[in-house]
Amino acid sequence: MKLCTIGCGAHAHSVHGPSQRRCASQYADVELTSCCDLNPKHAASFAQKFGYARSTTDWKEMVRREKPDAICLILPPQHIADVAVPLLNEGIAILLEKPPGLTSQDLDCLIEAAQKGGGIHQVAFNRRYTPLLVEAFRTLTTEISPRDVIQIRYEMVRHNRTDPDFSVTAIHAIDAALFLARSPACSARFEFHELPHLGAGVAAATMNVVCESGTRVQCLFQPVAGVVLERVVIHAIGMTLTVDLPMWDGFDSPGYLRLWKKDQLVKVVLGNELSGVEMFELCGFYDETVAFLNCVRADRPAAPTLEDSRNSMLLMECYRKRMREFSFLSPVLV
Question: Which fold would CATH assign to domain 127-275+311-327?
């Protein structure tokens, strides 16, 4: 299986490259053929560090030359559609970095191309493959119906994130929370605490979602707090489950899952009991890459798809536009 990568920046170097190198060492059919970046030094460094045979600055020429079976597209969201649409049109299997674009219009173009080409694609929402959240999802599915989940609270905390558009980070928490809810979202409400003295667009935010199941999902976003962490609390009838996610060797690494029933602690799981100890393993990047390549190998659909990402993308756009309310029954973004 010939694998190529487009985009060899810091994120690719930190998690995707190590995941791909591990896949190539574990699966004899995985061949790291070529990687591409507009910066030739980045491309060459990526190739040398992770075992790619060649590097280039021209992704179109790379695709023509290598004829890859699969491509990992690791680009900023504003550049995803320009590169992904022609690849999807050709039916080439793609793992797309998240978010897949900046707007719902970007997403619609990508979905149209994916339908035209008919190839396998997967959006790299790595938290869906983070071992602790996979275990949380499995526990919820085994233990309780979505209708009996009362509340999901997802807290995303960062330090010194004064970038003007935090929505492209917030979508990670949004998607993970909706994934755990196991029920489509119906409506959302937002509150914003603007912090203009820290920079344009800097704000803390709260998002409250009502799901078809009746579950209330709350996401709290604190981009300029004093620590980097993500924590989830899920309350159901007679049951509470918490997950402290491992974040870049941060305070909560390697992460914890705890399950209480009827006021008794019945399960404790450490993140490194479910996977290796490297951050690309603890944070789900390796498992999502394995899942994608397994789907390419077996010629079966991967997940999550672009269509699966729609609600998360819509809520990300609501966040960016500072919308106060949104209904999925009449989805109008103004």
Answer: Dihydrodipicolinate Reductase; domain 2 (3.30.360)
Stated as kind and residue range, the H or E segment containing 132 is: helix 131-143
Q: What is the DSSP letter of 16?
A: I
What CA–CA distance (Å, rounded) separates 256 from 305?
Answer: 28
| Most distant CA pair in the chain, distance | 61
d(CA 140, CA 145): 8
Rounded-to-10 torsion of CA 140, 141, 145, 148: 10
- Token pair 């159901």 is found at 236
Task: Quote the tokens at residue 135.
Answer: 């275990």
Classify 261 as helix, strand or coil. strand
In the three-class reduction of DSSP (H, G, I as helix; E, B as strand; rest coil), residue 74 is classed as coil
Q: What gap in Å lies between CA 169 and CA 156, rounded to an integer?
A: 9
Tokens of 330: 């009449």
Distance CA 322, CA 201 (A): 10
Level-2 CATH architecture, domain 2-124+286-304? 3-Layer(aba) Sandwich (3.40)
1 with 23: CB under 8 angstroms? no
Using left for φ > 0, alpha for ψ between -120 and 50, and beta otherwise, residue 285 falls in alpha
Integer Cα distance of 327 and 334 in angstroms: 12
Non-local (6+) Cβ contacts of 222 within 8 A are 155, 156, 157, 158, 204
Q: Give the per-residue pLDDT at 253.
A: 87
Say how far apart CA 235 and CA 232 lie, in whole Å: 10
**Residue keyed to tokens 């004899």:** 28
Tell me the two tokens of residue 286: 């390796």
Mean pLDDT (the chain) is 96
- pTM: predicted TM-score of the whole model, two decimal places: 0.96
DSSP strand pairing (185-194 vs 325-327): antiparallel
C-beta atoms surrounding 132 within 10 Å: 28
Integer CA distances (angstroms), 44 to 3, 20, 50, 62, 79, in order: 16, 16, 10, 14, 21
All structural domains of the chain with their residue ranges: 2-124+286-304, 127-275+311-327
pLDDT in tens, 131-174: 999 999 999 999 999 999 999 999 999 999 999 999 999 999 99
